[in-house]
Design brief:
Elements lengths: L1 H23 L1 E2 L5 E4 L5 E8 L7 E9 L2 E7 L6 E6 L4 E6 L8 E7 L4 E2 L3 E5 L11 H46 L7 H35 L3
Parallel strand pairs: 2-10
Antiparallel strand pairs: 1-3, 3-7, 4-5, 4-8, 6-7, 8-9, 8-10
Length: 227
Amino acid sequence: MGVLSKTIILSIAAPSTVVIAQAEVTLKPDRPFLWVQPGQTAVLECCYTNKGKLESFKWIRYFREGNHTIGPANVNLTDLVTQDVDSKTSCGVLNFLTVQPEHSGMYQCWLKDSKRFTHGTYLHVYKPVEKIIDLSEGTKNKILMAEGVLLLFCVLLPSAILLYQSKRHNNLEMKKVKMQEENIYEGLNLDDCCTTYDQIERSQTQGQYQDVCNVMEEEEEIQLEKP
């Protein structure tokens, strides 16, 4: 029974010790991401508080290779990639003297004593877009101003042409109507007009007399037929 009770006490006490050790460590916010160009320097930090105590740690890395994510992998320290410790702020520091594209990835610290990962920082090494035509800011402003003037002409010129054509068409129509009004009596012969008028009057008068005679003849014929 004595051995069994000691075993139970140890099994209960061991997890509580781990919980207390983890509770003593507080992780500080890390920089979420860092963008740098190839050849530049980069500094990553993982900070924590542990009542003034420094923990042993190591840097690990997750990175993409094709369509797969590889990690956690230990960061290889070289002359260009070094590791330091800032005792004042309790931070682990990873220095890149010359960043290369293959250094891109997610970097975290593994705290060995408390067995915890820090939040981590994503390092992205990008290649800037090369300029095909290198123009100064003054030249760019002049080009933009010229484009604005051309755009203004493209909008105003067609409108002005349409207005001019519409006004010209209206003037031609007014002149045409005026000329028709002035020439309405040109080319007419007054003698012919009088002769035509007399013929019309004479034909109307003769027609009336002929109608009266015809009526009288019809009445006589009707009377002669009676017994």
